[in-house]
Amino acid sequence: MGVHPSTAPAAPAATASPTAVDDAELASHLRLSVIRLSRRLRQESGTGLTPSQLSALAVVDRRGPLTLGRLAEVEHVAPPTVTRLVLKLVSAGLVERRPDPHDGRVVNLVVTERGRALMEESRRRKTAFLAAGIGRLDSHARQRLVDALGVLDELLRAEQAP
Length: 162
What we know:
Strand order of the largest sheet: 1-2
Radius of gyration: 20 Å
Number of domains: 1
Oligomer: single chain
Number of strands: 2
Distance between the termini: 36 Å
Order of helices and strands: HHHHEEHH
CATH architecture: Orthogonal Bundle
Structural class: mainly alpha
CATH topology: Arc Repressor Mutant, subunit A
CATH class: Mainly Alpha
């Protein structure tokens, strides 16, 4: 996916026993693969937004309406940073500020129809990119991908456990 074979880290040997592969080496390879895939998907998004703007818009789209403070928490950024991000999203017509119906002192962020359409198109483009790549895989590789997704989901569930 845009990675030149000579620059890609060598995959751990498929024939090695699970304990023969160093955990740190495997973690490093996984991290690099996820970063490269994420970068490639951002390129496919076609939104014209920065990664930070796209992330903030996606959070408001999925979790909104929400306050600036809550968005800053979710995005792990300082309030001044989220304020700048939101100003750009508002000026682009992707997000609106609306008074909270229960507390007029509070302002909530809500995705506009234009913002929602942009997110839907971005998701469609990224899914199409991945589907095209998956379509080029043989049945064995597709099954390995299914298995790998199960392992990734398991890894994430274990991380979320209390």
